[in-house]
Design goal:
The chain is mainly α and 104 residues long.
C-alpha cells in the first residue's frame, strides 16, 4: 500500500530527486536506471501515469536491490519509505481552500 503523503504530494520533479538520491547514497548508475525506467514506462498501458509507473517500477526493480544492499528482508518497503522521505523533504505544502479565511 502506498502512503497517503506519496499519493497526495508525489510529483514529476521527485522522480529525478529519487534517481539522484539512489546515485549519491548507493552508487546507482543514474543514466542507466533512467533508461530502464523509460523502457518500462513505454511498455505500460496508455492510461498509466508516469508517476504510477515510477512507483511500480521502483517497487518491482529498485526495491529488491536496495533490500539486498541493506541486508533487509526482500519484502521490506525500502523504496516506498525512501520516496516518502524525499516527498516530505522536498515538497511545499499545498494550501487548503477551507483553511483560508477572508479578513474584513
Amino acid at each position: 500500500m502506498i502512503p497517503q503523503a506519496i499519493t497526495d504530494h508525489f510529483d514529476l520533479m521527485h522522480i529525478d530527486i529519487v534517481f539522484r538520491e539512489l546515485h549519491d547514497r548507493f552508487g546507482f548508475n543514474k543514466k542507466e536506471w533512467e533508461k530502464k525506467f523509460k523502457s518500462f514506462l513505454s511498455q505500460q498501458p496508455r492510461n498509466t501515469s508516469e508517476l504510477d509507473a515510477f512507483i511500480k517500477f521502483g517497487n518491482r526493480f529498485i526495491n529488491p536491490v536496495l533490500n539486498e544492499i541493506l541486508c533487509r528482508n526482500a519484502l521490506h518497503a525500502t523504496f516506498s519509505q525512501m520516496v516518502l522521505y524525499i516527498v516530505e523533504k522536498n515538497s511545499v505544502p499545498k494550501p487548503k481552500a477551507a483553511s483560508r479565511v477572508s479578513r474584513q
